[in-house]
TrEMBL record:
It catalyses: Hydrolyzes single-stranded DNA or mismatched double-stranded DNA and polynucleotides, releasing free uracil. NCBIfam families: PRK05254.1-1, PRK05254.1-2, PRK05254.1-4, PRK05254.1-5, ung. One of its GO terms (cellular component) is cytoplasm. Its main location: cytoplasm. Residues 49-211 form the Uracil-DNA glycosylase-like domain. Keywords: Cytoplasm, DNA damage, DNA repair, Hydrolase. PANTHER family: URACIL-DNA GLYCOSYLASE. The gene is ung. This is Uracil-DNA glycosylase. Its EC number is 3.2.2.27. Pfam families: UDG. The keyword DNA damage applies. Excises uracil residues from the DNA which can arise as a result of misincorporation of dUMP residues by DNA polymerase or due to deamination of cytosine.
Amino acid sequence: MNLSIHQSWKKELEPEFEKEYFKDLLNFVKQEYSENICYPPAEDIFSAFDHSRFEDTKVVILGQDPYHGEGQANGLCFSVKDGITFPPSLKNIFKEIEDDLNKTIPSTGNLERWADQGVLLLNATLSVRAHEAGSHQKKGWEKFTDKVIKIISDEKENVVFLLWGGYAQKKVKLIDDSKHLILTSGHPSPLSANRGFWFGNKHFSKANEYLKENGKEEINW
């Protein structure tokens, strides 16, 4: 099982790979994948980092767990593989983009097109056992992804962090708001969205306005 992260992140995260917790985490993940059906496919676990390289990352969207249904997860939070029906949260994300930017809802829920423009689609936990939400939580992934957020905050400037829902908003303490833009709202899941905590947040136009103001190319959402 080959678990490797893109070279641009390797330099930043090398010290983490040497830590005991990370070695334990990798042993756990390898065992889980050998004994159970897990998602995303092993080669996609670090996919978010492959598509959005360290130097290119200008927006960070935080999720919690990969999708645990067959064929859904592709290593990017909220994203599904081509041809897969949109999960409810993703459907609401596209509805908000439609209202905010007057863009047609796309035919695919594969968000690699965002990631390739510098949107890091980061789940707090990067793997999960099939049909068992949260099954790989508290094994070390959160410690690792917290470090990723902290490194981006410390070493980069003018990054937009989109924190949707209570879980993501707890990460605000890792981010220096004096040099980055933090946008928070309810989660796009129907439970939150239908109670008025998601729709109308205009996060996508706000993110682009901030990027433009800081001389960065806007995201084609």
